[in-house]
Amino acid sequence: MFAQLxxxxxxxxxxxxxxxxxxxxxxxxAGLCEACLASIxxxxxxxxxxxxxxxASGAGPDHPCGVCMGSRKPFxxxxxxxxxxxxxxxxxxxxxxGGTLTLTRPLGRIAEQALSGLVxxxxxxxxxxxxxxxxxxxxFNQSLLxxxxxxxxxxxxxxxxxxxxxxxxxxQADLKTEERxxxxxxxxxxxxxxxxxxxxxxxxxxxxxxxATVSExxxxxxxxxCKVFVLTLARAVSL
Length: 239
Ligand SMILES: [Zn+2]
Ligand SMILES: [Zn+2]
Description:
- The chain folds into 2 domains: 38 residues, no CATH class; 195 residues, Rossmann fold.
- The strands form 2 sheets. A 4-stranded parallel sheet has the order 1-6-5-2, sandwiched between helices. Strands 3-4 form a two-stranded antiparallel ribbon.
- The protein has 239 residues and is of the alpha/beta class.
- It has 10 helices and 6 strands; from the N terminus they run H-H-H-E-H-H-E-H-H-E-H-E-H-E-H-E.
- Helix 5 crosses helix 7.
- The chain binds zinc ion (2 copies).
């Protein structure tokens, strides 16, 4: 009742376009208006069974991609909910750099949908950490906010203290594939090995591009004999 009254007095606004959600065509439980939701492209076609990269063909069953057939990933599986383009890209940039924290819930809901591609149980959810300097600058770690949303439904523990970024790295966006790998090499450390040892870890990040960052996190977690699964909200692909 009270919630309904609040909705009448203060109709919810879409955090992405600023229009009233209901007037813009429903989608209220999603926290975004219909038009903005429609501009976020879900990954639905076949993907690599290991790294989760969508295939351009858009038909047929999931199968390993060329890269995963040729080399082993330090994580068991990675999945992403949406393509990093159009509405999703706009939303993530606004969330991460514009500090639009009202996007936390809707983006978390969307990220959660990639869980179905992982079909696993987890002991703990670990967000990809930010370096302390960047955290101070930005004021929040977007991956931790997403991790909390994803963990809420299944009631999983979120651990943001065991994995730390010990070295500040250049923004990955400016770098090529090989440079990305070098850039994050040795940048992470497990601070509380006893807390994560032999656990099934769900590693959460906002965007997966070459997978360099999550791979490096998974590599150090694997030393503690963790089984790492990766969930990112979005996937940047050049199809
Ligand atoms: Zn909108
Ligand atoms: Zn692959």
